[in-house]
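Troubleshooting log. The previous structure file for this entry was overwritten by mistake, so regenerating from the original sequence record. Sequence copied from the archived sheet and checked twice against the printout by T.R.
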Amino acid sequence: MMRSLFTAASGMQAQQRNIDTIANNLANVNTTGFKKSKVHFQDLLYQNEKSAGVPSSLSTQVPVGLHVGHGVKYVSTEKMHSQGGMENTERELDIGIDGPGYFQTLQPNGIVAYTRDGHFNVDGQGRLVTSDGFLVDPEINIPVETRKVEMGFDGTISVYLRDETLPEAIGSLTLARFRNPSGMTPISKNLYIPTAASGNPLIDAPGSNGMGALNQGFLELSNVSLVEEMVDMITAQRAYEVNSKAIQASDEMLQTANNLTR
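Regenerated output below.
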């Protein structure tokens, strides 16, 4: 059997995964704080029929080897944690991070998950929560008499109570960052959990020690570029087509060989 059939098939599978990833990026173009993914590929095992440098005579060496590849495989889908644009929502509980850092949220199982989605709300007990009701960590409680909430660039949260003219500080938000943010695992709902590859979280106040600043009334948009994704999709589609052509050519060559007569 011609190895080109399996080599081209591996190329089609790789480009199918590439299209799957591009489709997910495009589907989340309007998802708050979404980070696009990029597929990375590796070539497969080579059949080394002749190695470079082996003697070709008593005084000469082979300058170039003879190696036949067996296709390609996809090895990772890396999250690209570049900054997304900022959208002004004029909503006092919307918070955008300008720079590195992630909000911390407490999951029902006790695990802390991390997100760039700063669309927060207040639950029935006055606690600051995400859109899915997960508590923001550290816990922030908004008094029932609050008429206005203010947040500083450093994460300090102050409220104006019903009859007060001066703000009262009720807590502070902290951010977490990672040495390798691409090593975190996405778990849907705009959340990530750390792994051994990402390292332990480094927690600090916004705007200090490399942390991003907080912007009240803004939300970070997705970092997906429609133009780039469309170009990547066209490239992947053409690569898929040319691999299918290679399979067709191999099939025609086999058919010709089978039809040979003496």
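The longest strand covers residues 72-79. Archived copy saved in two places this time.
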